[in-house]
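Subject: Fe2OG dioxygenase domain-containing protein structure
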Amino acid sequence: MAAGAAVTQSEDSGHDKPNAQIQLEKPVDTSPLYTMQAFFDGKMKVEDFARSEQERPSVPHYVFDDTLPVIDIAAIKERSSEEREANVAKMLMAARSWGFFRIINHDVPVELVKQVEANGKQFFALPMERKLSVRAPDFVFGYTGGSPIKWKSKWWLEGLMIKVTDEALDDMVNQVYPHEKEFAAQFKKDLKSFFGPMHELSRFIVEELTEGLGLERDTYTRLETPNSNCTGRMNHYPVCSDPDSVLGIPGHADTQMLAILYQDDVGGLQVLKDGEWVGIRPDDNSFIVNIGDTFQAITNGILHSASHRAVVNSKKDRYSTVYFYGIDNSITLTVPPGLITEDRPLKYRPFTIMEHRKYIVDNEVPLDAVRHLQINPEA
Ligand SMILES: O=C(O)CCC(=O)C(=O)O
Ligand SMILES: [Fe+2]
């Protein structure tokens, strides 16, 4: 099957379509490193993605639970202190219990998000060889056409991980679109316009939560350096002939401080709440925020990095766009003394994000990775 054959292009942006047949400047290594690429190449079948009985999606993509807390960001920023306090308290509670919440009135224009998504669709619809020109060699930045084929865990998705610096972003887009200058310029402009406000929004949420825990507002955000792991990620889940036996992305928690996610109208994101998988309803006017492992560990486990996953379907391709906010990769992170009490003794050992990320990748993105940072992992 040809790469991206399942993609519907009808909702794409008004930009000129890049020429699919274009000659790349450098020859590209096309041997499959990732599952979805191997599937597109005819080297893997749907059956090869089948999960074990226990792991199969028990809840289909169209079933939702609307009890997820909703936080009004404008109320925190602008309104009376009463409304502000109520929303901060609700956000803190959601970050502790769910590790997930929905934000509304966040000020990032939905048209911009949709434009970034449309550019992502254009990217995923390119012939495989062109996507491979920015293939992530090590599952970090670039195109990851699924999970590494050598893993036991086979993911039904393609992803594009974008490092949030102007230089890295320019390099990546120029590499994929060497001749379509106008399209490349628009792609870069849209991403930069998107990353700026997403970064500010992430910092704001982290700082509100930090203050809510009784710490100085910038306790964690001051650890953001040029060596931080702020990342944009676009996900494409192609339609699947047997969606009940596979997972787009299996249950995992995100590594960084937090993630802000926009999903299209198809549905498929699910969060693990009290041992049950709960479907999160798509909604154009809100984002979903989730706490990452780093934030859980450096708040001594007060905040909760929720496991989540994406299920797929047999009717429609699904896309999601995520902004991951991270702090310095290699600084040794420790729990602030203010969060250690007699009732809540120190739970996590000092660690670096780089070390945690390596553990996660080496272990094929396990469900409860943060446990390995516990002083007593058996507890
Ligand atoms: O596509 C989704 O809804 C989930 C994506 C996700 O969890 C991730 O990219 O880390
Ligand atoms: Fe995630």
